[in-house]
Amino acid sequence: MTESQLRRSAEDIYSEELKALCKDDGRPRPANWKMSPQAVVTFILGGHAPDGTKISAKYVGNRRLIETAVATLATDRALLLLGLPGTAKSWVSENLAAAISGSSQRLIQCTAGTDENQIRYSWNYALLLSKGPSPDALVKTPLARAMEDGTLVRLEELTRMGSEVQDTLITVLSEKTLPVPELDISIDAARGFNVIATANNRDKGVNELSSALKRRFNVVVLPSPSSLDEETQIVIKRVAEIGTSLTLPPIQSADKELARLVTLFREIREGKTINNKTKLKTSTGSLSTAEAISVGVSAWAHAGHFGNGVIDAQALAANIVGAVVKDPVQDKVALEEYLDVVARGRDGWSDLYYAIREVL
Ligand SMILES: Nc1ncnc2c1ncn2[C@@H]1O[C@H](COP(=O)(O)OP(=O)(O)OP(=O)(O)O)[C@@H](O)[C@H]1O
Ligand SMILES: [Mg+2]
Fold first, then answer.
1. Ligand 1 pocket member 88 (CB < 6 A)
2. How remote is the CA of residue 281 from the centroid of ligand 2, in Å?
3. 59 Cβ inside 6 Å of ligand 1
4. pLDDT of 40-86, one tens digit each?
5. Cα(309)–Cα(52) distance, integer angstroms
6. Cα–Cα distances in Å, from 264 out to 84, 94, 152, 230, 271?
7. Which CATH superfamily is domain 10-221 in?
8. What is the pLDDT of residues 115-164, one digit of tens each?
9. How far apart are CA 232 and CA 236, in angstroms?
């Protein structure tokens, strides 16, 4: 992996932290784990390694949830991270795999087009035709490799694939084996193998999670940030990290503007003002924390390249409109109402009011 890569994996970005956490980790670790469960929780939530190295927080939220997720992975039950869009399911899954198995790259992206061959194994047809079925002609999926090596495999957006394909996982999860009837063999899971799946319960086009499969997963629901302060803190932190990794031009601190952005997102998302006094129309989009982060990063790029190096109302406005107005009729009405009822009268918000009005 190199610095030129557009997006580096978690194990690459945090390689120093991972090394420090593995070193002198005297606590018991499950077979094939790179570190103890306690060290994994420290990696996700932040803290200090035994040698004093500072560990940054990857996830901001409830410790209990992360402990449950890590404890599940140490058992023979699989982990399903469930939640609304943008609640850090994929991010937590990537970091868990990086900490536990040292790699987050064993990944299957599930879609409506995913079939059983992408879950179990497929064949190298040139070899299959010339030599007939043989172990050499077997093309193993990330799941099959994870079973052999005793590592984690990530299944992204599990419920996007059809229920009958999801059921391919049943034998793997309960018997820990993957039969290959053509060769009369089976791929048996080594200790340390487990599955982290993510699924979101709001998007359109998702399938039911089959009940047989549901029983084999421990479900951990990742909630939206509970308070305005917590969400603002997450957005400020991630915008700084992502902007820096994209080497955007340096800008002055944007904390105040990002706080306004999160307030606006939360109020429209929840259909009421923070002080609970005014009811508002909601928008069709999810206006998740993840979207606030991307509006923040885009505004930074705008301010850094075209503005005067400060994220201001102008830099935010176009990006806010783009994020809120997904449905040109309904969402526009919601944003217009928000401007008139909330933004116009709020102290210190007139610049944002006019800037958004201009682009709307
Ligand atoms: N509580 C949180 N702590 C830290 N980062 C968060 C939190 N919530 C959201 N984020 C950030 O939001 C961004 C998007 O998260 P991610 O892509 O993992 O969401 P997701 O739940 O997988 O969404 P989707 O359902 O759309 O796939 C990441 O950069 C992540 O860091
Ligand atoms: Mg995701």
1. yes
2. 27
3. yes
4. 999 999 999 999 999 999 999 999 999 999 999 999 899 999 999 99
5. 36
6. 19, 29, 39, 15, 10
7. P-loop containing nucleotide triphosphate hydrolases (3.40.50.300)
8. 999 999 999 999 999 999 999 999 999 999 999 999 999 999 999 999 88
9. 6
Residue type, 203: D
Cα 171 to ligand 1 centre (Å): 31
Q: Determine if ligand 1 sits within 6 Å of the CB of residue 46.
A: no
User: How does DSSP assign 200-236, residue by residue?
Assistant: ESSSTTPPPPPHHHHTTEEEEEPPPPSSHHHHHHHHH
Give the global pTM: 0.93
Distance CA 163, CA 286 (A): 25
Residue with tokens 């190295």: 53
Residues 6+ apart with CB under 8 A from 66: 41, 44, 45, 59, 92
What is the C-alpha separation between 74 and 30, in angstroms, rounded? 6
Query: Which residues sit opposite 185 in a β-bridge?
Result: 180
Q: Is 81 in a helix, a strand, or coil?
A: strand
How is residue 335 written in tokens? 């944003």
Which strand (E) or helix (H) includes residue 178? Answer: strand 177-180
* CA angle (354 as vertex; 348, 359 as ends), nearest 5: 140
Write down the residue that tokens 């978690």 correspond to: 10
Cα-based distances in Å from 306 to 247, 296, 300, 310: 15, 15, 10, 10
